[in-house]
Amino acid sequence: MRVELKEKFIEKILLLIAFSSISILALIAFFIFGEGLPLIWKIGPKSFLLGQRWVPSQGSFGILPMIVGSFWVTFGALLLGIPLGLACSVFLSEWTPPWAGMILRSGIQVLAGIPSVIYGFWGLIVLVPLVRNFLGGPGLSILSGSLILSIMILPTIISISEDSIKALPPSYKAGALALGATHWETIWRVLIPAARSGIVASIILGMGRALGETMAMIMILGNAVKMPSSFLDSARTLTTNIGIEMGYAIGDHRQALFATGVVLFLIIMLLNALALVLSRRRTA
Amino acid sequence: MNSNLKTLFWLFALLIFFAMGCQRSKADITVAGSTSIEPFAELLAEDYMLHRPGSHIYVQGGGSTAGIQAVRTGAAHIGMSSRHLISKEQDLYSVIIAQDAIAIIVHPNNPVQDLTLEQVKEIYSGKIRNWKEVGGNERPIILVTREEGSGTREAFQKMVMGKEEIALEALVQDSNGAIRQVVTGDPYAIGYISLGIVNERVRALKISGVEPALENIQTGRYQLVRPFLFVMREEPSGEAKAFLDFVMSPAAQRLLSTEGLIPMVSISSGG
User: Is the ipTM reported for this complex over the cut 0.85?
Assistant: First the structure.
């Protein structure tokens, strides 16, 4: 009887803890929307989302350059990160001898554990001058940002893709090999298509990570609020807009930063929902 | 199981004990605000604490506006502002602790030594886009500016730009140090930072032939000067007053002047 009571008690406590973490999410969402939405209504959703001028001191709050900047940087990161990540996960799940796997996996874990400010600092000191000297422009650019981000999203892409390839029934591989396919043909024609939904989910999660990255991007992108026209241009993303201006913002300016957060929140939610749907489809 | 619970209990007790230890004593003063003043306030706090063991001054950044906000809400005792108070903030008590010159900086290898204020304005508004037009090499000018809302940017806007707007393609950095870092790395960049932050890896330009040096600032020949303020909710008392008195003392003001700021009280007398 006593033991049963204790079990019940522990169960309830755990339930409470689980819900309290969710309630924090609700609180944050409530606060961001409460602060941000009034401003979006005040200046109109259209001129907020599609406006090209961001000059808070004059009351212009258009975040289109930042939405575009966010997607340029993320697109660049995926362009570099997907082939690298996918190749690495295929190698890890299919070819790696155990000793190499251990080194690679722990290396990737370290990659995931490096604080973003370190990535940013390294990018600023090493990568930015290289880009400036060899390709021109200010060096603080979308290209530099994308290069750094592509490294930062590798762990996400690699670990989830590898898991999804490994989770395939062994009969797929055995069947393909029995039909006379080479190892590479088996990977390219059978394993990767079969693990497609997991791989796509990993890419979307990596995309979410790239969109959300702030510190490293503040240091590398140059933060100019202008519609980017090339990969060598400076740009500002939604997150860096909040990060760089929050210290001094008051009144409408502060609300506009929260409104930027609302847009970011919605984009990330959408991506996570998409990843969830795609990874569910595999198990169903 | 029982011994596990016991350990857990003791860990918890220890945690509470430490948490209580973290509670700040009454003698502690929190100073928050402008990132331009922060490094100087840290120096002052260090010196102050050295002379007064037992007292603690916590210095944080956050920006002028955030600092003033923090004073209002009581989160900080003293706010640091690198701009004058706006009309909505006039109810607060403020003291100018020093004045700071804004230096226009370039890379040491840049041949340009001297610009007029008008040229700086045209460079920043995007009318002059090449160093060649102001006597430098034939290379595009990379503009570096502070973010919207920054006290330094506001001062620069008011003193240099007037009604003109800073060009949109300007790179934006969120601290004096970050601007200096970019200009250190880029031979064709131009930026503006607090004179106290200028080091040997960047060069402060002369403005119409006037070097940003102490005597030129005090005689009013170098004009890009702005105030550094300490802001409080009301006239200070107790520990906050003691710290403020220390900041305005000749010794502390001398310290500020060796760091490149312009002192508010005469520092020639002893003490």
Answer: no
